[in-house]
Amino acid sequence: MKRREFLTTGALAAGGAWLSSRVTFAGVAHGSKPRLVFVILRGALDGLAAVPACGDPGYAELRGDLALARPGTAGGALALDGFFGLHPSLAFMQQSYAARELIVFHAVASPYRDRSHFDGQNVLETGYPEPHAVQTGWLNRALAAIPARLAPENERGISIAPTAPLVMRGPAAVTSWSPSRLAPLGDDTLQRITDLYSHDALLRQKLAEALAAEAIADEGAAEPANAMRDGMRRRPLLAQRGKPGAQYAEIVKAAARFLRQENGPQVAVFDTTGWDTHFNEGGANGQLAVRLAALDGALSALKTNLGPVWNDTAVLLATEFGRTVAENGTRGTDHGTATAAYLLGGVVNGGRVVADWPGLSPRKLYQDRDLRPTLDLRSVMKGLLAEHLAVPPRALESSVFPASREARSLSGLVRA
Amino acid sequence: MGLMDKGLTSAIAANRFGLGARPGELAAIGASGSEWLKAQLRDPVPQITGEGLRSSASILAQIYDLRRTIRAERRRVAGAGAGTDAGAAAIGAFNELKQLIRPVYLAEAGARFRQSVATDRPFVERLTHFWTNHFAVSIDKGVLVALAGSYEREAIRPYVLGNFTDMLLATERHPAMLLYLDNELSMGADSRAARNIERRNAQRKIGINENLARETLELHTVGVDGGYTQTDVTAFSEVLTGWSIAGPQGWWSGAQPGTFLFRAAMHEPGSQVVMGRRYPDRGYDQGAAVLRDLARRPATARFIATKLTRHFIADDPPAPAVARVAGAFVQSGGDLPTVYRALIDSPEAWEQPVAKYKSPADFIVSAYRGLELPVRADKAPVGLFQLLGQRIWGPGSPAGWPDRSADWDGASELLKRIEWADAVGQRVGPRRDALQLAAQMLGGVLSGATREAIARAESAAQAVVLLLAAPEFMRR
Lengths: 416, 476
Description:
The complex is a heterodimer of chains A (416) and B (476). Chain A has 416 residues and is an alpha/beta fold. Chain A has helices at residues 3-13, 17-26, 47-50, 57-63, 91-98, 117-126, 138-145, 187-196, 201-220, 225-233, 244-260, 287-306, 377-389, 393-400, and strands at 35-41, 78-79, 85-86, 102-109, 157-159, 174-176, 267-272, 313-319, 339-344, 352-354, 375-376.
């Protein structure tokens, strides 16, 4: 495929969007560019299942059948700090914790206090205190606020998805990429479509972004894109369904491929789903255990695929809210409030659980049912953006997380 | 309307309200776009029939039977101790279960796709898809792979030209919805069944599951700003306890297996207050009464009107159109054809051609219709829908697929559409006159630039690619 040659000439005709990003990428110093991966856990991941508070006497009492046994017992939680444990499916997370590369934030919540997934995810992604305030995401606005001298202006972020999730939409130039089983276009056809889009601002920009992402994907691929696609074509349809692990393998590989590029994006975002465990949630084994194991495996694969770039990388995982402390009537949990968030990577100043633990005794619960939030998720995000991506504090308060003054930035999240 | 002289009215009717113009359709519509749409509302909704289409009840009954065989065999093997091989009966049942589900999905998706491509009442078909997406279930949950298609045929399609209340009742009590939103085992803490269980096994946790009640309020009726609280969600969940499915035998039976069954023994006794109204305990009728009242709330009318207006007019629905459609909903008591006519009669609907970016499903179906691409009798291009990001009956959440440009206009998504168009062009290009088809498909919205690009294409195949990739074909 000769897409790269096409790009240098063809995109010039399209307005140079591609070319300018290419040039600025090339200007970045090698080796130390910070990378951020944001993983959205859609569906409200049960923080007390992933990070059980084994040391709290209320935990076993209120959780009932869903409670995990203490660390050290058969099928029990993995040990963290003596008070908190990790779900037994999260072996890689535990290793990361031991290697001081994982911080768990607990009893954390966004400012959203109702229990709608969709409004909760909207707040998680927009970064505004109220749902549906804007149609842009905090991560995109943060990228737009990074001073040009610190990072190239264009193509700072990529979504590993057909269309960018809300958190990545906004003023900064970002792109999206997802695997295709279709054959790439011929250069002449591509040129004509580029011309056809010259008067359509949206399509012109999207096509230029897509081609830029393809070019990076090709550069980083061990095998050429065509061969990769042929391999995919042989896979059964709907192969992504069923096995939660399979759906992540491709995503993680792609994310790492982009982030490894010296001239590639510094931020990648992808989605995971299936955390809405109203029914048969399971404990050490069962439905949630399988999904957590898949997620844990994906994170481990991400580290492997990133190679040395892992040392420049922070991975933030967050969900829209938590779940009820007590089991519901169908061996699951209903929508709740506070939950856990996770920050891991080679740059993370880890090996600790950050929590102002509210306790699980019935009178300490939020609205008599949920883990009470004591940490604002925006504090984590602000601290990470300031320390890791050098987003100016003033921008964090004004454009990235408006009306978030009470959520003070956490410091010391990444290694100095 | 002011657009009729330019061939824009027919393009809006066929492409935004319909599923994309088939050759001849625009000419048949002429300047009477709104009449063409209203005429489609007169006769009953076409029902889909075909080989391999089965009722939800028969599918579920078979699944229950196979699961029972597997469970019994597991118990037998466990009782016999280690080293015992799983019996042939279990393996056979397990394979049968696997082989049951996917062919059902393919048959259903194929029948639906054929209908979408062939129908001469595309507005009604689009409305059907709209409502299935409103009362969304998803094949993300395994058993729904087998049930999503029959759910649409049984709980949506018959009601598309009826009353909203009837559709609401039909969907909330359909086994597919009860399974998707986890209500079939939700049990009142003071119900007879709960007390029996407590006597036998004090350990087991008994109670409600809130999922169906919450999503019914938030997604199906009044909307998230409809004025309910957590207390209302909890009370409504209690009301819906006992809304369940008849199983194959014993305690679980009570009706034809796989059909809706109200289990009085699981129902929480007593009256409940939902959104300020008290509902005495009349068993099943308590829940039906709540649903009927929810259907009549002005918040529901507004919520539905906003969604319809967003789908048919613009991403940011014009307020006067929303008010008009909501007013028709309230005044007619949820009579859906009246609501649709208010939508058609909104001048805003006819002011801006190509106002909506196509979803992947829109893009695929309109391409098949416009180019008259062959549809295989036995299968839908389900892989194509997945590749372009919109699996048939597979939204990622109970909210259904989103409906704004920004949800679908992603860079990678666009490139895939063009790559697929390229494959189509290579397959059928030599047998299509793309320039002539462009006029047939796009009518008055076809731009000079697109026409020129198609005319100058280096091959018939490339001309088809340019037609399908054209900015005005990416939108409706």
